[in-house]
Amino acid sequence: MLKDGHKHLSGLDEAVLKNIGAGRELSAITRTSLGPNGMNKMVINHLDKLFITNDAATIVNELDVQHPAAKLLVLAARAQQEEIGDGANLTISFAGELLEKAEELIRMGLHPSEIIIGYTKAINKTLEILDDLVEKGSENMDVRNKEEVVLRMKSAVASKQFGQEDVLCPLVADACIQVCPQNPANFNVDNVRVAKLVGGGLHNSSVVRGMVLKNDAVGSIKKVEKVKVAVFAGGVDTSATETKGTVLIHSAEQLENYAKTEEAKVEELIKSVADSGAKVIVSGAAVGDMALHFCERYKLMVLKVSSKFELRRFCRTTGAIALLKLSRPNVDELGYADSVSVEEIGGARVTVVKNEEGGNSVATVVLRGSTDSILDDLERAVDDGVNTYKSMCRDSRIIPGAAATEIELAKRLKEFSLKETGYCKIW
Q1: Among 50-54, 57-61, 85-89, 359-363, the least confident range
Q2: Based on the domain organization, do 354 and 231 belong to the same domain?
Q3: Which GO terms describe its molecular function (predicted)?
């Protein structure tokens, strides 16, 4: 019935308790990283890449977990991270504690299904109690009030970067408020970008209202202001002919004419883009030498954005429409930017695209740090802050912190459990 090499585990000792043991082991790995004073873990993944972090989501994602029961906890942590953006460590640690208590009850003689019924009752009661513990008036929070946003964001950011929250939170709050739409419930986490630049320190970090591309402009023009932007997803190059064919050339004159015709075609296309009013061309693929030559002649700034996702964000920032073919864009297909400039930050040349007046939908937090490892950890802290803002936009209610809520829940659940009646098997 089953293929060769299969294992069949049954009974309490073989299956249930081994599964519980695997869950507890995973929980023990992440538990010591919980909270602002949690220890960092050194993780080396299957590609031999080194991670030093106290972020449980990163730890469990990079660990190669084989046991199927432990994998369930990893999936639970990932679901928590995707939905809320924080709390992955608490999810695994709490699950490990529940499994440990369940093991004691199983050894006492209770059946797993009876334990599940008890846990379900506790969940329902917890949700009832939580509604009573909500701070009065917290449901009417203004998500565009920077002071309130920073106050609520601090605990989430401090759990990753303890001591740096006073510097990081105002930066994240500024970026989130800039891109918050008319209806805050539609806030998109992807609109707050992070640019990590090695060098300097956290105090050198800043927020750019627009995008920061980590590459240089292609041509010699490095700065333009108040410009229209044309975006070509297919690249700026001489396009191949649509049909395959062979051209028979008999003389040097014919070869020269053929080259001139091709050159004239490229010039015509670039001139048509310049005539449309665009001063910046953004290419999603290769930029040909001949095309670049004519862009320089017509004083057009050329940027190359290789990632299609970055290209989409660039279109969101400037309001441009990406065209597949190099051709003259219509007025409504052009985007607008207040300034596009190449700057040198910490030895790296980056292109800063600002759109402060036009009202943009993307903001970038420029993070500075001494090593890549520190920058990665700072990025995770920013990610937690942005996800906290997203949660505020959905539901701004808050409850007391510093474990006060958890202690109150434990106290009330204990009282509730004493009132519950049950039965125990007598052996």
Answers
A1: 359-363
A2: yes
A3: ATP binding; ATP hydrolysis activity; ATP-dependent protein folding chaperone; unfolded protein binding
CATH number of the structural domain spanning residue 346: 3.50.7.10
Please check whether residue 267 is in contact with residue 183, taking contact to mean a CB–CB distance below 8 angstroms.
no
State pLDDT tens for residues 66-117.
888 888 999 998 888 888 878 888 899 999 999 998 888 888 888 888 889 8
Q: Indicate if 123 and 23 belong to the same structural domain.
A: yes
Q: Single out the residue in 110, 136, 162 at which a domain terminates.
A: 136
Contact call for residues 23 and 69 (beta carbons, < 8 A):
yes
Q: What is the rounded distance in angstroms from the CA atom of residue 323 to the CA atom of residue 376?
A: 34
Which residue, 136, 169, 190, sits at the end of a domain?
Answer: 136
Q: In this structure, what DSSP letter does residue 223 have?
A: E
For the chain, the domain total comes to 2
What sign does the CA torsion over 159, 160, 162, 168 have?
Answer: negative
- Find, among 320, 164, 122, the residue nearest to 230 by Cα: 320
Least confident range from 11-20, 72-81, 224-233: namely: 11-20
Angle value at C-alpha 14, between 9 and 15, nearest 5 degrees:
65
